[in-house]
Amino acid sequence: FYFRNKHRPFLLFVSFLHVHTPLVTTEKFQGRSRHGLYGDNVEEMDWMVGKWLLDIIDKECLKNTTFIYFASDHGGSLEAHRGNAQLGGWNGIYKGGKGMGGWEGGIRVPGIVRWPGMLPAGTVINELTSLMDIFPTVVHLAGGAVPQDRVVDGRTLLPLLQGTVQHSEHEFLFHYCGVFLHAVRWHQKDSGTVWKAHYATPVFQPEGSGACFRRGICPCFGDGVTHHDPPLLFDLSQDPSEANPLSADTEPL
Fold first, then answer.
1. What InterPro entries does the record point to (predicted)?
2. Number of other residues whose CB lies within 10 A of the CB of residue 121
3. How confident is the model at residue 22 (pLDDT cuts 50, 70, 90)?
4. Which of 127, 148, 161, 181 is in the most buried spot, having the most CB atoms within 10 Å?
5. How confident is the model at residue 249 (pLDDT cuts 50, 70, 90)?
6. What is the CA radius of gyration of the chain?
């Protein structure tokens, strides 16, 4: 692929089977990690990204002309297991995980960008973006324009990455579980506060476990979710782990 397209623009999309059950890990990487088969799987994916993608891009002298974006489509799966061994990821301070359309642990993933010579190294951007932003970013890089005959929810990432703007263009982001709207976040521009309203949340099993261990994955509707009227409201700027829902008494605004 690289040899055929190295002298003209190309788009290469690589979707890894790795860090998803079943954790198919080659013999070379089994037992390499201190974190079991899941960790072995992560290490093999890391090796593949370096060996099959980054090294070849460098070797073909495409490093300074290739925009690379690495991310995940959701947070770590908490319920994945084999027997009594937990095989899922870890979402840090964030509540919930994969399959949970509203909680931060299901939504919030790191995005890693590499474009030497064009983007400064070592920069950390805490603004929330979306995988929807990949489409307009690619169009921007290709010198095109996004379609004007429909609503395109994504925003090009280039101004944010280049430092010409300080904040994401997303004032609102809507978080679905399947086709069901579970939560909405609002980045209040004048104050910088980020609010999150939950209309439905999964029923954790066991209660308080932070996941749906008895079901294997949290459902999006039916008896597996709790509907909230009024919605659960959190100030993510002060409470990123969504531990303290606000009320009219605690938050007059």
1. Alkaline_phosphatase_core_sf, Sulfatase, Sulfatase_N
2. 8
3. confident
4. 161
5. confident
6. 20
